[in-house]
Design goal:
The chain has about 120 residues and is mainly alpha-helical. The chain has helices at about 5-15, 20-40, 85-90, 100-120, and strands at about 60, 75-80.
Length: about 120
Amino acid sequence: MSITGEAEMLLAVTQLTAGFDKRARKAVRDGGQLFAEKLKPNTPVSNEDHSGLGSLADHIKTSSVSIKTGDYSVDVGYDAVKGQIAHFPNSGTSKQSPQHFVEKTQSEMREPVLAEFIKDLKVN
């Protein structure tokens, strides 16, 4: 692409940015959903349910897209019902070894989430 004048340059920039917000929101939302789908099987499930509320894996949630910090973001994690205990099996306690399932999911999903971002952000 070669641009010869100011008007052509402004038109090219306008064409590139048209629809960016919609594509960016979709990219972040899809990436968060991919991460949540992988977090669920990586979350350990105990045979004992002392709370009666089901397993931690059943309480994974994805927030809506936010741009509060200036960046598009989606929070993926556990809901308020079971979320406060998620760090115990992940980080470990004096009686339980750490399982690091959140970190495992982060490292496994880095490339697939970035690929999803690129797919959604491409201008057709």
